[in-house]
């Protein structure tokens, strides 16, 4: 299994060390390894994310996989230039299963007895399910405001749920205090880079399902940036392998109540701005201080993309519009559709520099939007705004 490397100082650690942060404080990545998939072999492979085996840092464990991946890619009725990727249909009803199955597989190979994770909800439910399947104890730290549906899912899978008062940042701090006990894997979707390599299969699937070509624009919700960095990995690898001709522009979407990355992009900064953030219905991306913020900003800029924000009102309206199309998703999942809708209707805040840049990218000929989490996870806030 490939080692981990510090993105700041270059120190290399074996993955067996269970380390999750460099001693210098830098974020860890997976060392470069040959990720070229055998494109000719794909048609004969299993319909799951493990079909991209060469690109993954670990081999599938048939006792752990739940057939995750290869979610449908369908056209949006209301916005014909948009394809929707239905990642809320994965086993625990969110895209986080892509990374969770990789970390649970890793944990079993490393023979750890227990794992811990912090989450705003969906990563916790995904980890709870996959660690249960792997026979490994799992503790999940979540904000006490987490949706009851997500808490019920975690508890059903036997996870120990630690409810932390305060914000998502307070939950992260509680988890960091508890991390690092001997023999316990901190299965963080933010810190552990194997997670990102599981999530990147989302990008490989877009490529394969579109007849082995990438769209002009991919829109992603961004909080901690796991889907965004996963997409960036996938697109970079596909282009480097000669399997795709261009990098899609990545347009990332935040909730306006908590948009440290959008503000950094607008101000031309390399790191997220410091802010407290206020409450938003898009709970999955309410991250005031994303640890991989610098990597996120660099990745978006490298693709020629940008970062925008939408209001809760726009998000709720988009959620309703998606429901009218037969797709019931959680509010966090609706922010990307809200951004495309604002670009098409030209209702973005004209004072925002990033919105102006996003308008042409979001109305390009081919745009892919993920729907990451199912509506039943947080069925409230269904107020009609139309
Ligand atoms: Zn370092």
TrEMBL record:
Keyword Lyase: yes
Listed SUPFAM superfamilies: Tryptophan synthase beta subunit-like PLP-dependent enzymes
GO biological process terms, semicolon-separated: isoleucine biosynthetic process; L-serine catabolic process; L-threonine catabolic process
Source taxon at top rank: Bacteria
Gene3D superfamilies given in the database record: 3.40.50.1100
A GO term, aspect molecular function: threonine deaminase activity
Domain Tryptophan synthase beta chain-like PALP: 64-350
UniProt KW keywords: Lyase, Pyridoxal phosphate
InterPro entries named among the record's database cross-references: Ser/Thr_Dehydratase (IPR050147), Ser/Thr_deHydtase_PyrdxlP-BS (IPR000634), TrpB-like_PALP (IPR001926), TrpB-like_PALP_sf (IPR036052)
Protein name as catalogued: Pyridoxal-phosphate dependent enzyme
Biological source species: Cryobacterium flavum
């Amino acid at each position: 299994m490939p080692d981990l490397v510090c993105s700041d100082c270059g120190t290399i650690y074996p993955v067996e060390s269970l380390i999750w942060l460099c001693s210098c404080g830098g974020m860890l990545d997976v060392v470069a390894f040959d990720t070229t998939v055998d494109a000719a072999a794909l048609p004969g492979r299993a319909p799951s994310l493990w079909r991209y085996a060469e690109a993954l840092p670990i081999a599938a464990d048939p006792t752990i996989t739940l057939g995750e991946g290869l979610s449908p890619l369908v056209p949006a009725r209301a916005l014909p230039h948009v394809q929707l990727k239905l990642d809320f249909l994965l086993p625990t009803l969110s895209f986080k299963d892509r990374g969770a199955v990789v970390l649970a597989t890793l944990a079993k190979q490393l023979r750890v007895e227990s794992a811990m994770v912090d989450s705003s909800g969906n990563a916790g439910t995904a980890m709870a399910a996959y660690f249960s399947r792997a026979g490994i104890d799992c503790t999940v730290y979540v904000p006490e405001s987490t949706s009851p549906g997500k808490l019920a899912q975690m508890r059903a899978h036997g996870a120990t749920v630690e409810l932390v008062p305060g914000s998502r940042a307070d939950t992260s701090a509680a988890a960091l205090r508890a991390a690092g006990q001997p023999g316990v894997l901190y299965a963080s979707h933010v810190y552990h880079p194997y997670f990102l390599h599981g999530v990147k299969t989302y990008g490989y699937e877009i490529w394969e399902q579109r007849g082995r070509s990438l769209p002009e624009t991919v829109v992603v919700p961004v909080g901690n940036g796991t889907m965004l960095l996963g997409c960036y990995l996938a697109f970079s690898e596909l282009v480097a392998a000669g399997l795709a001709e261009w990098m899609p522009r990545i347009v990332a979407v935040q909730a306006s109540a908590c948009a440290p990355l959008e503000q950094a992009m607008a101000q031309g900064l390399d790191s997220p701005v410091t802010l407290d953030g206020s409450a938003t219905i898009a709970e999955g991306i309410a991250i005031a201080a994303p640890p991989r913020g610098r990597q996120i900003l660099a990745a978006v800029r490298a693709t020629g993309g940008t970062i925008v924000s939408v209001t809760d009102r726009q998000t709720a309206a988009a959620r309703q519009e998606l429901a009218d199309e037969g797709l019931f998703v959680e509010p966090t999942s609706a922010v990307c559709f809200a951004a495309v809708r604002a670009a098409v209707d030209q209702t973005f805040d004209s004072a925002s520099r990033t919105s102006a840049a996003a308008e042409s990218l979001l109305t390009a000929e081919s745009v892919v939007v993920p729907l990451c989490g199912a509506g039943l996870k947080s069925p409230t806030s269904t107020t009609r705004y139309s």
